[in-house]
Amino acid sequence: MSAAALAGWAGHLAAGSTGFPLGSASGSLDGTPGGPALGPGVTGEGGGVLPDGTSAYDVDMPGVAGLDPRLLDALQRAATDASADDVDIVVNSGWRSGAYQEQLLDEAVTRYGTPEEAARWVATPATSAHVHGDAVDVGSWDATAWLSEHGADYDLCQIYMNETWHYELRDGAAIDGCPPMFRDPTDDPRMQR
């Protein structure tokens, strides 16, 4: 992604938009022919799939670039401080297109057997915080343990007891601590929309 495209995308977010912007007629953010297709109907890298080892600083990746700017800032500050403790915070998933979220939900239904059981692990595109860039899944047990202990200092909170890797920004957590966790997404009122 070019610097100009990234700057334009940052402006898009600063204007209060949620979700990843659609690209030009060519389907890419920077308008280059053959560039990666981006947007809500896209899967693959353009839909938010991240390669192994992605960091919070890999803002050329749509799954990282599509995070809410305040969440991304908090995650980057946490990653920098975690590295001082020899902990590498890897981003396994961040922003996701609606199509990619639907793909994950379909895979969860196949894996868990019913939509009700899948809902304990994967939200619908309409309710997923990932689709709006408001959630990040981090990798490695060291990273989840570090964030469990220090995440509130950055307003980063684990939301679900069954998802130790899923973090969202919670204003005031640095002062008041993180709110109580939900057992799983089925207990989260935001998932009832």
How does this model look, in words?
34% of the residues lie in helices and 8% in strands. The chain is α+β, with helices and mostly antiparallel strands and 193 residues long. It has a single domain, classed as 2-Layer Sandwich (Muramoyl-pentapeptide Carboxypeptidase, domain 2). The chain has a four-stranded antiparallel sheet. Strand 3 (156-158) and strand 4 form a beta hairpin. It is globular. 35% of the residues are buried.
Write the layout of secondary structure elements.
Layout lengths: L2 H12 L47 H4 L3 H16 L5 E4 L4 H15 L2 H4 L16 E5 L1 H10 L5 E3 L7 E4 L3 H4 L17
Antiparallel strand pairs: 1-2, 2-4, 3-4
In summary, what is this structure?
With 193 residues, the chain is an alpha+beta fold.
- C-alpha-based Rg, rounded: 16 Å
Number of discrete domains: 1
Element order: H for helix, E for strand:
HHHEHHEHEEH
Dominant shape: globular
Strand content: 5-15%
How much helical structure, as a percent, in the residues? 25-40%
Task: Tell me the strand order in the biggest sheet.
Answer: 1-2-4-3
Q: Can you give the mean pLDDT?
A: 83
Q: Given this structure, which CATH class is correct?
A: Alpha Beta
**Secondary structural class:** alpha+beta
CATH topology: Muramoyl-pentapeptide Carboxypeptidase, domain 2
Report the count of strand segments: 4
DSSP helical segment count: 7
Low-pLDDT ranges: 1-36
* End-to-end CA span: 34 Å
- From the coordinates shown, what is the CATH architecture? 2-Layer Sandwich
The largest sheet, given as strand count, sense and whether it forms a barrel, is: 4 strands, antiparallel
Protein name: D-alanyl-D-alanine carboxypeptidase-like core domain-containing protein
Biased composition (Gly residues): 32-50
Region (Disordered): 26-55
Domain D-alanyl-D-alanine carboxypeptidase-like core: 67-163
